[in-house]
Each structure stands twice: as structure tokens, then as C-alpha cells.
Specification:
The structure is a single chain. The protein has about 425 residues and is an alpha+beta fold. The chain folds into four domains: about 45 residues; about 220 residues, D-Maltodextrin-Binding Protein, domain 2; about 60 residues, no CATH class; about 80 residues. Helices cover about 40% and strands about 15% of the residues. A hairpin with a 5-residue loop joins strand 4 and strand 5. Helix 1 runs antiparallel to helix 2. The chain is elongated.
Length: about 425
Amino acid sequence: MTNELKYLSQQVARQRLDRRSFLGRAGALGVSAAAASTLLSSAVMAQGAVKGGTIKVAVEGGSSTDSLDPALVTNSTGTLVNRLWGEPLVELDADGGLEMRLASEVIASDDATTWTFKIREGVTFSDGKSLTAEDVLATLERHAGEDSKSGALGILSGIKSMRADGNAFIVELTGPNADLPFLLSDYHLMIQPNGGKDAPDAAIGTGPYILKSAEMGVRFVAEKNPNYWNPDLGHASTIEVTVINDDTARVAALQSGQVHMCTRVPPKVASLVGRMSGVEVHSVPSAGHYVFIMHANTAPFDNNDLRLALKYAMNREEMVDKIQQGVGNAVTAMSNSHKMAEGTVTESKEVEEALEAIHDKVSSIAEMNTHIAEAVKQQAATAEDIDRNIVGISRVAEDNVGNAAETTRASEEMATKANQLREMLTSFKV
């Protein structure tokens, strides 16, 4: 049975048998769909990538107001399209480490304030021009300039100076930053001829494809770049990207065969889509994440205690389970742990220990606040008793004042009667 399945999986890898037929034969042999899929994936990987053909992809997020200028990209469609024709200096690999692209080597000074990027040789732009360190310098200058509207402007704010020296691009920072190479993997920083200063939206880059047509928010067509430097990428001859922003329509296009793959399968229907005939749902770890943004320079978020309180009040696991339908992972903090050059690794364990210390401090403050609240409550109760006593004394005083008034009136009446009696006695004497 094992030999038969192995033979069938190889037939699928060679495109001599379709996946549905393979799963049917595997089921007849008593093999589960999950096990059969794993065997098939291994066979396909061993066979290697199939060259040529057209891949049709449905994506979401595109808009008619989008731009091909990498600096102005604001959605996932723009990111995907720009990565077809362009490349940054470095990329993040599947494990979160650095993968060299247009930089063949990255060297840091001991204090991580000076970084040297050796530019890969033999790389050409899609217009035939050779890539140089000057192009890299011009690209970063355009994104970091005072008048720049680039989405990467913020992450370049710590740069003190930049220069090209032969085949090297050198960056000096205002302070140490071990994460600089990771920051330069940002999707806005596609290296362009002369930095894109001449024609930022011309879509000329060093990527595996050349953009042949672009209808913003609708459809893009890219063809294989015959001079691309990396043989491990860009196997299809043509890539067709269709923007379908509606989730239901996008999944329907996949089910009907209108497209070969689609992005952003909604978590609530991912399991149903995975049960469709001939469809597989792949969930891949990425650097993508959802955040709740707090402007720390604006009230009330300028209060660090408030920010910590909000942080600890959120049940991240529950949010993943109920909102993301279990698709994703809950994290306590964005860690700075990356695979860096030797001696520049920041361990996530240290970050977690620091967070735990903060949590303990917040807990002790909360306990102290509880004790203070109890003391204030007792003082308030005592104050109420004092108020009641004062009210009682006031009432007694009022009663005494009333009694004194009555006594005064009685005395006055008695004095009046005494005067009358004295007058009567006087008349009798006469």
C-alpha cells in the first residue's frame, strides 16, 4: 500500500494525476485525507517547483485610488503587487530571521550605530540598468526626506547619515538600534533606479516579474522577468491578480475555479472552505498582527498606569477564540527578539521577565489602592458619625435656645404683671 501511495503521489507531482483522484484512491486504501495530503505535499516538494503556466490570484484590499509608488502603499494588494516587480534590501524568512535580498551581507559596528549593507552584484532592474549602492542610497533618501509622504518615514527617523561607498551602502544612526536590518525589510522600501525620484510609480525594480498591465483596484498582470537573479523564486510564467474585496465573492471565485488561490479567507468560514473539493486552506505564521493604538502623548493615554491597566484587562486568548475563530496566536507583547548577527540577540525571555515584574508592580499598587480605599471608607464612616453628633448637638442647642426664648417671654409677662400690681398698690395708698 505504501509503495502504491508513493507512486500515486509522484504521479500527481508530475501532473499526470489530479489531487481529487489521488485522495479518492488513498481513501479506498484506508488512508485518511490528512495523511494523504501530507504524503502528497512531500512528493510535490521532492519533485520541485513546476515551471511555466499562469497563476490566478484573488486578493482583497485594493482600491481605485491606490498607487504603484511603494512609498504610498496602504493595503495588502499594493504590498503583493509591489513585491512582484520590486525587492527591498532584506526580507524576513519563515522563522522571523533575516533573509538577504538585494543586500548580500549585513555588517554592524560593535555599538550597533553603524550598519554596512554589501549590495548584491550582477543584479539588474527590469529596464536593464545595473543595481548600484547609489540606487539604494537614493531610495532611502526619498523615503526619509523631510517632505516625504512615505509610510516608512517613521521607521527611518533614527538615521543620522547615509552614504554609498563603492558596493556598500552605509547607515549611521543617532543611537544604537539592533533592529535596523529588520526595519529595512518594510514593504515600502522597494529599491528603485535612482530611488524612484524620476518616476516613483513606474514599477521598475529587480523583482521576479515585470508588470505588464495595472488597473488599480481591479486587475494586474505580471510576466516572468527573464533576467531575475534568484532561480528559487518566480516559477510561473504569468501572474494574474484580481481584486475581489467581498469575502463571499472571493471564496466563490476560488470554489468555481475562476482563480487558483485567494488571500484572506475569513476565519469564520475557513473550516468550511477547507472541506471544499480540491481546496486546501493554509494558515502560515507571519509578522502580521492587530493592535489597539494609544497615542501616548495625548490624554488619557499619556498615563502609563492606564495603558498597563488596559493591557492587563484584555483577554487575548478569548479574542483569538471568539473573534478570529481560533486562527492566530495571542501574544503578550511585541518582542524585539530576532535572529541577528552573533552578540546582538535580544531574548524574549528577558522581555517576559520585565513584563512579569511590571505586572507584579501593578498588582501591588492595586492592592495598596484597595487598602487606601478601605481606610478612606472608614474615615468617611467616622466623619458621618461626627456629623450625626454635631447635628444632635445642634438640635439640643436649638431646643435650649427655644427654651430660653420661652423663659424670656415668661419673665417679661411676670415683669408686666408686677408693674401692674405695683400701680394698683400705689392707687390704694392714695
